[in-house]
Each structure stands twice: as C-alpha cells, then as structure tokens.
# Entry
Amino acid sequence: MKVTGCLKLASTFYGFLTLSGGATTGLGIWSQMKKSKTDLFNTVDVATLTTITSMGGPMLIALGCVLALMGVVGCLGTLKKKRWMLLVFFVIVLIIFILQVTMAVLILLPNNVKEKSLSSLEGKLVTSLQKNYNQDTSITSIWDETMTKLKCCGYKGYDDFTNSTFVMKQSLYPAQCCGQDSPCGKDKALNEKVRGCIHVLLDENVPISGALSFLIGIIEIVALIVSLKVYQCLGHVPNFPV
# Structure
C-alpha cells in the first residue's frame, strides 16, 4: 500500500509537471507575440540581433516543451514501472536545470554588462546613424520607425546624434529625442532624458524574470527528488538520502 500510494503521488506530480511545461510554453509564445519587432540591427549585424534579443521567449518555449515531455515520460515510467524511463527523466531534468541556471544568469546580467559585450555593434550602429540618418532613406525610415515604436532615441541616447550630419545641418535632433515634441533642440533633448533604443530592447526582451526562473528551478529540484523517491519505492535505490 505504501508503494502504491507513493507511485500515485508521483504520477500526480508528473501530471502537474506536464501542465507546468505547457504553461511555460504558452508564456514563451505570448512573450514572442508581444515583443516589439525592429529591423534596426539588420542594417549592420543580423547575427547579433538574433543573439541578444531572441533569447528569452525561445528559451521559455523550449524549456516548456521539454518539461511537458519529461512529465509524460516520468508519468509513464512510474505507471509502467520502467526503470530506464525514470533514469532518462532524471538525467535530462538535471541537464535542463544546469542549463537553465546558466542561461538565467546570462539573461539577468545588468544591462551595462551586456552593453560592454556589444561594443562592436554599438560602433557600427552609431557610425551608421551619424553618416546615414536623413541621408539614406531606408536607414532613416528604420531608425524613425524604431524610435517611434519603442519611444527611444538613438542607440544609447540623444548624444548619438550630436556629431551626425543631420544635427550639423539643422542644429536640431529628431522629435523622438524630445518625446515627439518638435522642434527638438539639445537642451530640450537633455531634459527629456529619452532612453536609448538598446536599453529599451534589452529590458523588454527579458521575458523570463528572476522570480519565474526561481519558481521553475524549484519545480525541477522537486522533480529530481520525486524521481529518486520513486526509485526508492520500487526498491531500485535502497536507502537513498533525500
């Protein structure tokens, strides 16, 4: 009876794990749909765009799908009393937990740390902005659309425009640098303190928060303990200290 109760409890937990994986996948899809799209980085570096702005949502989707699948494997392994299924479950969830902690640390790093790693991208974008804004129609359109949509100004702020041909000719900054207020002089842009587009993009593309990462980590730890308890109930791992 004790073993039967243990297996029923474990099966219930694995069912909960499957539902949690489905919910995590749904959150990842929602965050991808909600995320603002921009072609700004495509003007200089497509690979960097993919790396820095697409980590959170896809990571949640992949994590949710794997957790849901592992929940099914764990449940089947428990009901069918298949030792190899429980072993697969334990190893894969342990690997997921380690990778999740690593990715969460990278994603939740302060923005100033991330910006240092993007110094080459910053140089390319600022140079492109200063030379081509209001000179190249396509690049100007992309910058205007990005700044309007994200309510930002320049790469890191209004000062990116200071040495541009646009400001040198007109002594004015884009209206987005003054909260869409025109004409936009340097003093007004300084007072408005509109954030740079990279700051907005980095902030909005971290859909996995520390609290969510912590919660999923707790579930994974419990899943590992449950899998060991099932082994113990089945007599395959006697006296395992958990």
About this structure: The CA atoms of residues 45 and 200 lie 18 Å apart.
